[in-house]
Specification:
Blueprint: E1 2-3, H1 6-26, E2 33-39, H2 43-59, E3 62-68, H3 74-86, E4 92-95, H4 105-111, H5 123-130, H6 139-150, E5 159-163, H7 170-178, E6 185-189, H8 196-201, E7 205-208, E8 226-227, E9 233-236, E10 244-247, H9 252-255, E11 261-262, H10 269-288
Parallel strand pairs: 1-11, 2-3, 2-4, 5-6, 5-7, 7-8, 8-11
Antiparallel strand pairs: 9-10
Helix pairs in contact: 1-10, 2-10, 6-7, 6-10
The structure holds guanine.
Length: 290
């Protein structure tokens, strides 16, 4: 069994990005610039946005944080998005989700210029991904594919079972895994799937992305499978400074001995998601400064 070290892989990719930023600056281009829009004070969102800003600093990007209280109107947010779309000094931006109930997330996503949509959530980017055109791919699927490539995991003709059909993970990942560069045979399982245990046991590559801690047990995993755990549920903990710790969708202790490869939580998919946003921002910067 080999542990897939997302933390070390992300660190290596960050070093590659930092090197490219140095070259860009030497060639007279400006540093890639990412902005994050954060509404309200949700603990998870605060943490994720703080990481995004820190990641930018580490690789030499410029970053901006635009904050609103959770009573901001949809109209005010749309106006800010128009300004960010028109800002020539900005390569990409994200609006951290979830948003308060009085704001339509879909309306906000669709207001973002697809060329600055480094989250890859805009229907134009999703559609381009589906038909294999260059696009911004959402960070978690992008990071998972990068991990699979960097670990030389065999995918061609393999049965890949993704558990979860969210717009930002399961569904786009199913598209990427079936594309010609990867060639897996993909099943998307979800809450209405019958015989889920049997479906999962048929997987050569099992990718749970349902956000249900330790849902996947050893009786759901084939001997020798590759298991990529997307779950990162924050659970209360007395053992950490923050009072929280992350739990995956996989019962790691029980499942790991059966696997050929497995990602840990934390230190697997999470760091790759973070670095993928940087890769998308770098790509946006290259395109906008051509
Ligand atoms: N909320 C949870 N994950 C994400 C993400 O990748 N991007 C944004 N904008 N919000 C999120």
């Amino acid at each position: 069994m080999q542990i897939i070290d997302g933390k070390a892989t992300a660190k290596a990719i960050k070093a590659e990005i930092a090197q490219e930023v140095t070259q860009m600056v030497q060639q007279g281009f400006r540093r890639p610039h990412l902005a994050a829009v954060l509404v309200g004070h949700d603990g998870g969102s605060e943490t994720y946005v703080a990481y995004k800003i820190k990641d930018c600093e580490e690789v030499g990007f410029t970053s901006s944080l635009v904050r609103y209280e959770d009573n901001v109107t949809e109209e005010a947010l749309l106006k800010k998005i128009s300004e960010l779309n028109a800002d020539n000094g900005l390569d990409g931006f994200i609006v951290q989700l979830p948003l308060p109930d009085h704001i339509s997330e879909q309306k906000i996503i669709e207001a973002i210029d697809p060329s600055k949509d480094v989250d890859g959530f805009h229907p134009v980017n999703v559609g381009k991904t589906v038909i294999g055109l260059p696009s911004f791919v959402s960070a978690t699927p992008y990071g998972i594919v990068e991990l699979i490539k960097r670990y030389n995991i065999e995918t061609s003709g393999k049965n890949c079972v993704i558990v979860g059909r969210s717009n930002i993970v399961g569904r786009p990942l199913s598209i990427l895994m079936s594309q010609k560069a990867i060639n897996a045979t993909v099943t998307v399982a979800h809450s209405r799937t019958k015989n889920l245990k049997e479906v999962c046991r048929n997987a050569d590559i099992l990718i749970p992305a349902l956000g249900s801690p330790e849902f996947i047990n050893e009786d759901m995993v084939k001997e020798g499978a590759v298991v990529i755990d997307v779950g990162t549920t924050r659970v209360k903990s007395d053992e950490t400074k923050s009072g929280f710790r992350l739990k995956g969708d996989v019962n790691y202790e029980k499942v790991a001995p059966k696997c050929s490869f497995i990602t840990p939580v934390p230190g697997g998919v999470g760091p790759m998601t973070r670095v993928s946003l940087l890769l998308n921002t770098l790509k946006a910067a290259r395109l906008s400064q051509k």
